[in-house]
Amino acid sequence: MMFPKILKWTGIVLLSLTVLLLIIFGIFFYVYGTHVNKQYAVEVRPITIPHDAASIAAGAHLYAIKGCGDCHGADLGGKIFLNDPAIGLLAGANLTSGQGGRPAGYTDQDWLKAMRHGLGTNNKTLKLMPSYETAKLSDKDVAALIAFCKAQPAVNRTLPPIKTGPVGKVLAVLGKLPLFPAEMIDHSYQQPGAMPVAVTREYGEYLSVSCTGCHNPKFTGGDSPIPGGKKVADITSKGNVGKWTAQEFMTVLRTGNTPEGLKLKNEDMPWSMTAQYSDEELQALFLYLKSL
Ligand code: HEC
Ligand code: HEC
């Protein structure tokens, strides 16, 4: 009578494990819900959004160097940028006034709330929108960016709603996937009126916010924020950057070819985005990173 007894115990162990897993999942599911449903009461400081051609051109440059198109498409009509059953279905919103586009009656305040606070019109966090990278943009820059977005033609494109899979939920709750931008923002931060474009350490620091999502806020690199992504390089003076000239740094950020003979893949290090920075902007970034 040994065999049935073993079966019985195996059954009990399997059942207990299943129940335990369900409980753990239930907890993650619950905690995930508390993050998603949290309501924020922020004060959106009003600023005037311009309409002139120079501001719109400045906004187009910002749209390019901040990589907005990677998730919202070059036409701003939105696109699916990740579709994985475990992590989820993630799509950047259609930002135009076309069908499936931004909510009807979307005001300048709503744009600012999204860009500076990471919040939707319902005052809940947007998902995966890297607003922590635009939250500190100067009034002038954020206004130009919004002016550019608003001036783009309508695109009719309805995207599927964002869904997070079980692994995506667990990673988000553990803080391994930046799914809740509103939680990563200092909502009382006072942005400067304008940041003059110049080859200064200060301007480099201002621009470098766009590198922190992957290279981390200390620029020392480490694990990728993208599950399964390539290890991120240290870009402080301690890494290769410390040995390069400004010219070499610019070549790396424009071609992906490093002086050490590495060919960086755009999927790992988005150099097709950094290629669009102006000479002055890259020199300012170099000055700042070298000083670290
Ligand atoms: C990593 C991908 C990603 C990048 C890069 C990105 N976004 Fe988004 N953005 C999203 C996602 C995803 C949403 C939808 C979030 C949601 O619905 O919860 C979104 C939402 C928005 C919204 C709110 C739209 C609405 O209907 O509420 C605005 C405005 C916006 N993004 C503008 C921008 C701009 C401008 C940039 C560049 C500075 C940018 N985004 C960069 C992923 C991204
Ligand atoms: C989407 C993630 C991501 C973003 C955003 C990003 N990087 Fe990178 N970067 C990487 C990864 C990953 C590597 C390492 C690639 C490899 O080893 O093949 C890298 C490598 C580099 C290198 C080469 C370092 C070396 O030692 O060879 C430089 C320089 C660099 N990044 C600068 C920047 C700057 C400056 C920004 C912001 C303007 C930035 N990166 C934004 C992911 C990113």
From TrEMBL:
SUPFAM superfamilies linked to this entry: Cytochrome c
Highest taxon of source: Bacteria
This protein's UniProt keywords: Heme, Iron, Membrane, Metal-binding, Transmembrane, Transmembrane helix
Residues spanning the membrane: 12-32
InterPro entries (alphabetical): Cyt_c-like_dom, Cyt_c-like_dom_sf, Cytochrome_c-type_DH
Annotated ranges, domain Cytochrome c: 54-153, 188-292
Xref: Gene3D superfamilies: Cytochrome c-like domain
Gene Ontology molecular functions: electron transfer activity; heme binding; metal ion binding
Alphabetical list of Pfam families matching this protein: Cytochrom_C, Cytochrome_CBB3
Name this protein carries in UniProt: C-type cytochrome
Lineage summary: Bacteria, Pseudomonadati, Bacteroidota, Chitinophagia, Chitinophagales
